[in-house]
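Two proteins were folded this term; both appear here.
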Amino acid sequence: MTAELSGRVAVVTGAARNIGRAIAVALASEGASVVVNAHSSAAEAAQTAAAVEQAGGRALVHLGDVSTPAGAQGLIDAAVKQFGQIDILVNNAAVRRHSTFEALSWEEWREVLGVILDGSYLCSHAALPYLRRSTAAAIVNIGGMSAHTGATERAHVVAAKSGLVGLTRALAHDLGADGITVNCVVPGLIDTVRGAAAGGTPAHHSTAKTLLGRRGEPEEVAALVQFLCGPKARYLTGQSMHANGGAFLP
């Protein structure tokens, strides 16, 4: 059987670990070549690339800051130089810090919105000429459950992830005529590794419960992304699709 994404090229931002790595591997398992982006985690990005190749895909690691125009354009240029095309863009890069609103500085606010929201705009804008050439292009933005429920000490993250929902709907309208699907996958209560720099486990994770009685795995989020990038999802666009074990029912 032919893999569903054979011949496709995917760019996955924030793919050094956790959900981003799982997405890169899931796409590769269906035959896609994957550009693994990370800001500075070279060793972990290399581990993701090795996992992509083990899954059967070709891999390219590109380090860069997608929150800047030059960083986003450099990522897209590197993908096209290596593989000649872009068919899939997964905007997963994120910074998720904790701060009371009173203590939240302008610099922290801009850092989080810059990576999550500006980065998604910049990468989508830079990739658009190449996505338009694809016969089955897809953009998938990775949202967050807190954008729909709210959360304490996360005003910057909630605002940025909420903005992704709006961007998804707007781009679905703007790009539908080009045959480009745009959707948002919304993980909730996923078992990921969060370092001290990210503020550790979010406070709301200790109180929120799932109907299934467990946390999700990154691979379960990746499976939904994989589906949205494949041929069976060509009639789905503008949607926010939740993977949260029933912790939030939209």
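Next, the second protein.
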Amino acid sequence: MAKYFYIARDKEGIKLSGAEDANNPEEVLSRLHAKGLIVINIIPESKESFYNINPKSMVKTKFKPKHNRITQGDLTLFCRQVATLLGAGVTILKSLDIIAQQVASKRLYRVIKDLQRNMEGGSSFHEAMAKHPQVFSELWINLVDSGEASGNLAMILSRLATYMERNEAFKKKIISALIYPVILLIVGTGALLFLTIKIIPTFAEIFKGFDITLPFLTRMLMVVSEFIRKKILFILIIAVILGFLLKKFISTKEGRRRYEKFLFSLPIFGEFFRILIIERFTSEMATLVESGVPILYSLEITEHSVDNLTVGDIIRKVKDDVREGKPLSQPLEESGFFDPMVVQMVNIGEEIGELSNMFKRLNTFYEEYIDTFLNRFTAMFEPLMLVFMGVIIGIMVIGMFLPIFQISQIK
């Protein structure tokens, strides 16, 4: 038998340390788990025996991260890896050590190493994460806190990983659906600019050699073409300045609220933006409530992570009403933002004690709704864009050929 020192926390979060005699670290881990402790680290007297490494036969590998930023994919993979390793009985510190050697982001590598240092100093996992708010959101920190307190950290991280994977897949689906319309719009705009800047001036030079009065449509096209050719740099500069000013305005709270109000007021797309936010709200609430986070904390986390000031204000009002003792369904209905179906499903979930399942079902419904909307939008956009392009190009062609018809009639 060998001696193993351990660092752990009980369900109240109190840090404990001690030593156990055992044949292997797995035996120590089983004993501590049986006592209801959350194991942070197990350190043998001989570190080489713990890792079962022969220094002479050890192959040194050079760490080669691929990029410096931390992408959503990096965080999703990190969460899934931690959940898998903890589920297999590996301690948190050893899990972080294993993941650090294969992470693709330089910055995430440094963050993981800092997590290890803080936890070796006695911090819990969520306390170490809280020191990196730009990397780990409130959703992460509160779920990990809940997992450490309940002793189900592996299961809750697995739920978080599933949520992140579904969210990432959903975003990719939206981006994929919008790629074709955006490409079609760019190509169409490029074609119109080419006709305006290159083709119309060529015809204009030809018409100068004829002593005729050009039709009104032709003159208008030539004026527009001349203006764009001479002022295109000025137009681009103005567009950049306006874009910069708009971005600065939206960065203010009042500007952001007005911008959000404008988006919600758009025909067709305003409803789409509203449904997008409801989908995110139901997804996060389902994950939080299922993981055992109290409803008030769940609403507070969602308020800050919904990324919409208008809806954040609505959720804050809902949270305040729930704190006063109202059922969740009542302030949701009074807000006027959520559909009657959301209110009814939440009301049923509260009555039967299945609130997380109701949020899951709502999230599935809104995901399908968004998917259907995008499919219909992409199906309709192509013919509408083609008709629009056909009309504009047709007007240009007619405008350029009218003088030719006029010249052909001169005897």
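Residues 46-62 have pLDDT under 50 and may be disordered. Residues 2-50 form one domain. These notes refer to the second protein only.
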